[in-house]
Amino acid sequence: MPGSVVATTMEPVEPQSLKKLSFKSLKRALDLFSPIHGHYTPSDPASKQIRMSYKLNAEYGLVKNLSSSQSQDQVSNDFKAQIDKASTSSALSLLGNDHISDLQMGRGENSIISMPTLPPKASETCISSRSITGAMVPISGSSERYPSTSALMERIPSKWPRPTWHPPWKNYRVISGHLGWVRSIAFDPSNFWFCTGSADRTIKIWDVASGRLKLTLTGHIEQIRGLAVSKRHTYLFSAGDDKQVKCWDLEQNKAIRSYHGHLSGVYCLALHPTIDVLLTGGRDSVCRVWDIRTKAMVCALSGHDNTVCSVFTRPTDPQVVTGSHDTTIKFWDLVAGKTMSTLTHHKKSVRALALHPKEQTFVSGSADNIKKFSLPKGEFLHNMLSQQKSIINAVAVNGDGILATAGDNGSLWFWDWKSGHCFQQAQAIVQPGSLDSEACIYALSYDVSGTRLVTCEADKTIKMWREDETASQDTHPLNFRPPKEFRRY
C-alpha cells in the first residue's frame, strides 16, 4: 500500500575467519594468473642441451680420451686439475639456463665456455694422491676408469665427547609426613640425616638409612623455601616467605638467631665454605650477606632487576654466584660488594644453579635450556643435548658426573655431565588422593656420597632414588648421537 513501510528481514551473515579469506584471495590469484594449475613453465630444450654439454666436458673432458697405457700417477695429476674445473662448473650452474644460453649463443653444442679458474678448496688441496687413486669406478659409455668422488670425502671422527655409561635410577622409597608442598632440602655433612622444609611451616629431620622421622622444628609462619646445614657448626639455617632467616641450634633443637633485613620473601640461601657468613636471596632482588655470630648484615649485593632465586658460594673468586628471574647470572666480588661479571645467555628465569663438586664448572637451569659454564671467568661451554620443555625448579650433580634436573611437570631427567647426554627420563607419580597437577618437583639433592637422590614434591611426599644394580649395558644400551654440527657421516 502506498505510504506503508515494508519491514525487511536481513539474513545474518556468517563471519569468516582470516584463514578462509586468505584461501579465497589465493584462489582468486591462481585463477587470474595460472589458469592451468599444477603445470610449470616449459623449459628451453636448447638451453638444457647446452648446459649438459658444458657439464660433460667440464667433468669428463680430461679423462674420456685417456689411453690404457697411461700411468696411475698421470691419472691422479689430471684428476686434481679436474677438481678445479668441477668447482667452476658448480659456480656456472648457479647462473641459470638463460644466462648460459646468452654466453653460448652462436657456438656449437660441444663448445666449452672459458671461465675464470676458481681456487680449489682447502680440503681438496690437502687430499693425497693415494686417497684419490684408491677408489676407481667405471664410467658409463667408456672403458676407462676414473677416481670416485667418495674418495674425496674426508672421514673425520666426531669431536663431541662420548658419554660414560651410567645405570638408570629407580625410586625405592616414598616418605610421607608433611601436610603441604615440600619446598626445600639439605643434607647433614655426616650423611646420617637430612632435613626438609614445607609449606606447612615446619622443618622435619629424617633418617637417611630408614626414612623415619626424627624431629620436627616449628617457628616459621610461612612456607620454608631454603635450608642449609653448616659443616663448621651444629647449626641449621632456614629461610621462608615470612621474610625471616633463622639459625637453629641442633644441640638444643630451637631457633637461637633471626636475621632481619629482607623486604619480602626469602627464596634461597647458602653458607660460605670457609668463612662464617650466610648469603640469602629473595624477592627484593638483593642478595644479602650476614655474619652468622652477630646477626649483622655485612653487605647487600644489589644489581639484579628481579627475584634472586638461586645462589651458591665458593672459597675463591667469584665467591658468590647468583641466578635471578631477570634471566641473568651474576658473579660477585664479596670483598668489594660489587658485580664482577654478568652472564646473559638465558632468555628466561634462572631458577636453579649447581656447582660440580670436583670440577671448576657449574650448571644453570631455566625454562629455555640447561647450560654449562666454566669457572672462574664464566665461559659458556654447551647446552644439554635435549630439551626438557618444562620450568626447571632444581638441579643437582654428584661426584660421578650425573646431573639430575627436576621440572614443574614432575619430570626428572638424568644427564651425563661431560657430554650433556640425557640417559634417563623419569616421571614423578602422584600419590593416591593428590591431583595430577601436583606432579611437580620443587627441590632435589644428592647425599654426601652421591649414591642417593632425594626429591621434594608437590604431592607432600619425599621420594628417594638410587641406581638400579641389576642394569647393565646390554639391558640399557647407550643410545647417543652427537649434535648435528659435530656429526661426520
UniProtKB/TrEMBL annotation:
Classification via CDD domains: WD40 (cd00200)
Keyword Repeat: yes
Keyword list, A-Z: Repeat, WD repeat
Keyword Repeat: yes
N-terminal signal peptide: none
WD-type repeats, residues: 175-216, 217-258, 259-300, 301-342
Protein name, entry field: Protein pleiotropic regulatory locus 1
Taxonomic lineage of the native organism: Eukaryota, Viridiplantae, Streptophyta, Embryophyta, Tracheophyta
